[in-house]
Design brief:
alpha+beta; 3-stranded antiparallel sheet
């Protein structure tokens, strides 16, 4: 049986792969495709335009449309219907056309077109947005300027924004300098709003043997929130004499317009740097120059105590043992396997470094925790030869000393971490911490051997001497003592000798007498009433003002001491109006950091910037990239 002929061909004339509707006007576009005899588009045309349906189709089937047809625009209703079309006959086809049809003018179909991503234009506004985002990426991730011309970046942007025109390095530098200018303006504004500024400074050398000096600034704003900024990382071509360093510091202070606000500069204990700070202090309004990095001073005391012969021997043997596991892949893998068998964390041994604080403690602690797996590896002759095992063997007596040293060095590591925290750690914490260290962790014990006793005696003596913990008639009140009194956590001075506490309070009173009180902080009271004025007139000048400074000081002493784990800045923020004069002094002394670690952190940043592949980086570009990264939270 042949294929049944569709009813559509009664209304359509076919010519090859084209079909022409006989019901449409000749002036209309009545051409449709019928490749292979397909009739889908023609059926749709007859149903919609001429209301012609298959005779056998029910009402429900007429309402369902083909799911595979393309979407077209909705037809517009017409206001009137045209008259019935006259019947006509064709010479090729003879059929009887229905007498009348409702002819609806056909709206030309529109097909939706989708622009290819490659044809999309990147507007100038979006291009500039990408330029700035790229500059911000380089600043925050310490990337080289050549990153924007790397093949990988080209491929990445071809996917993200195909028509983005890659910026040149010089254009990128302009945007980096724009960021730097914006940050400088913000820092200047913040420093201008404070009354005092404390700086830290340190010197370092790059892989290219270029010498740099880094300077940071610290202050407390009006809301008692600590602020920290990296001001500059400049090349220092001159010799590192005290005079040259002092000139460099003063030039930076003048450029940032803070010369009259700098109270002190925190540095390490190098003689030339300490003398440079003293030269700078003599040119400022305040003579606060006896504050050095507490963490550095503490490490010097530790290193001095570790020079005892038996302790040095243990440290040397431990360092060699760690070096063996670092250089032998077989020993290292065997150690990890033993740790896994014993259910211990799979960790590598740590090597000590003279320039890294607490690295000796970390090395000994890691060795002692892994005593069992280390001993198992050294006893395994398939991994460690007899000669190597004897060379790096640690005796039982040495293990006991390692355990004792770990216990002794642990509090020093805790104190260093607290003083060098990311958040602001004021210098007021130093003396209370050292007092707890001496009283709770360094007291002599009956079971201490000769080397441990020597360690305790040496480090106690050195700490007392470096931090001036002993008090006598010739002692003078230090900055750290004043700061501790102004810190509500240590205001009772429990960590100080009894006969030193009154001297500290007297020094604070003298400083308060020299303060010219800000009208905004002190004149917070309302205008005196008529009755107050009359009483003042009656009693005269004797009671016009009942020594407000004395009353304020006594009220401060009467305040309960704050718990050591609470925030002193929140305490002062809520009581600044109650103690306006003391608040001014507290904001000045509590802004002094305990360490110069903020400048030391620039070493790590600079090491990532001036790495082995970028040793030829210009010094001005080093300053630019380090400045942007250190102040990245201020990038607009």
């Amino acid at each position: 049986m042949g294929k049944k002929r569709s009813w559509v061909w009664e209304y359509v004339k076919r010519k090859g792969d084209k079909a022409y509707c006989q019901l449409c006007d000749e002036n209309k576009n009545n051409e449709y495709s019928c490749v292979g005899g397909t009739t889908g588009s023609i059926i749709r045309h007859l149903k919609i335009m001429h209301k012609v349906y298959q005779p056998e189709t029910s009402t429900s089937k007429r309402l369902s449309s083909s799911n595979n047809l393309e979407e077209i625009d909705t037809l517009q209703d017409t206001d009137s219907l045209t008259n019935s079309q006259s019947s006509s006959s064709s010479s090729n086809n003879s059929f009887t056309q229905p007498s009348q049809h409702n002819i609806i003018p056909r709206k030309r179909r529109r097909f939706l077109t989708h622009d290819n991503d490659t044809d999309r234009k990147c507007s100038p506004e979006r291009t500039e947005t990408i330029h700035k985002a790229l500059a911000k990426l380089i600043s925050m991730n310490q990337l080289p300027l050549s990153f924007c011309s790397s093949p990988g970046f080209y491929q990445f942007m071809a996917v993200v924004e195909p028509n983005y025109k890659i910026t040149k390095e010089e254009a990128l530098k302009k945007r980096l300098h724009f960021f730097k200018s914006s940050i400088e303006e913000k820092i200047r504004s913040d420093l201008k709003a404070v009354q005092s500024v404390v700086c830290t400074s340190d010197c370092w050398s790059s892989l290219a043997q270029n010498s740099y000096i880094t300077i940071t600034a610290h202050a407390l704003n009006n809301d008692w929130s600590p602020m920290s900024f990296t001001l500059t990382t400049q090349e220092m071509e001159e010799r590192h004499t005290a005079l040259n360093i002092a000139d460099k510091l003063e030039n930076v202070f003048s450029n940032w317009e803070i010369k009259d606000k700098v109270t002190t500069v925190i540095t390490d204990n190098a003689k030339n740097v300490v003398n440079a700070v003293q030269l700078v202090s003599n040119t400022t309004n305040d003579n606060i120059s006896d504050v050095t990095c507490a963490a550095h001073s503490l490490q010097l005391s530790i290193n001095k105590a570790l020079r005892e012969d038996s302790i040095s021997e243990i440290l040397d043997q431990s360092s060699k043992l760690v070096g063996h596991f670092k250089h032998s892949n077989l020993a290292k893998q065997s150690l990890l396997n033993k740790q896994k068998q014993l259910g211990m964390p799979e960790t590598s041994l740590l090597q000590s470094c003279k320039t890294r604080w607490n690295s000796i403690f970390l090395m000994l602690e890691r060795i002692f925790k892994n005593r069992c797996p280390i001993s198992a590896v050294m006893a395994d002759r398939s991994v460690t030869s007899t000669h190597i095992a004897q060379k790096f063997e640690i005796s039982e007596h040495q293990w006991l000393k390692i355990e004792a040293l770990v216990i002794l060095l642990k509090p020093f590591q805790v104190i260093t971490s607290l003083l060098c925290g990311e958040k602001h750690s004021p210098t007021s914490m130093v003396r209370p911490f050292l007092k707890k260290l001496l009283d709770n962790h360094l007291k002599p014990q009956d079971n201490d051997d000769q080397s441990i006793t020597y360690f305790k005696q040496t480090i106690i003596f050195d700490i007392k001497e470096r931090f001036n913990l002993e008090w006598d008639s010739k002692s003078r009140v230090s900055v750290r003592q004043i700061a501790s009194f102004l810190d509500p956590r240590y205001k009772n001075l429990d960590h100080e000798p009894l006969f030193a506490r009154e001297n500290i309070r007297s020094s604070v009173i003298n400083l308060l007498n020299n303060i010219e009180t800000d009208a905004h902080n002190v004149n917070t009271r309302c205008e005196p009433s008529l009755q107050q004025s009359a009483l003042e007139f009656l009693y005269g000048d004797d009671v016009t003002e009942v020594n407000n400074l004395t009353t304020e000081f006594q009220n401060y002493l009467a305040e309960p001491q704050l718990k050591f784990h609470l925030n002193p800045f929140d305490w002062w923020k809520s009581r600044e109006n109650k103690f306006p004069r003391i608040g001014i002094l507290a904001k000045k002394y509590l802004s002094i950091p305990a360490t110069s670690v903020s400048s030391e952190r620039c070493f790590s940043t600079a090491g990532n910037v001036v790495n082995s592949k970028r040793t030829s980086l210009l010094t001005k570009n080093v300053n630019l990239l380090v400045f942007l990264y250190q102040n990245r939270n201020l990038i607009p």
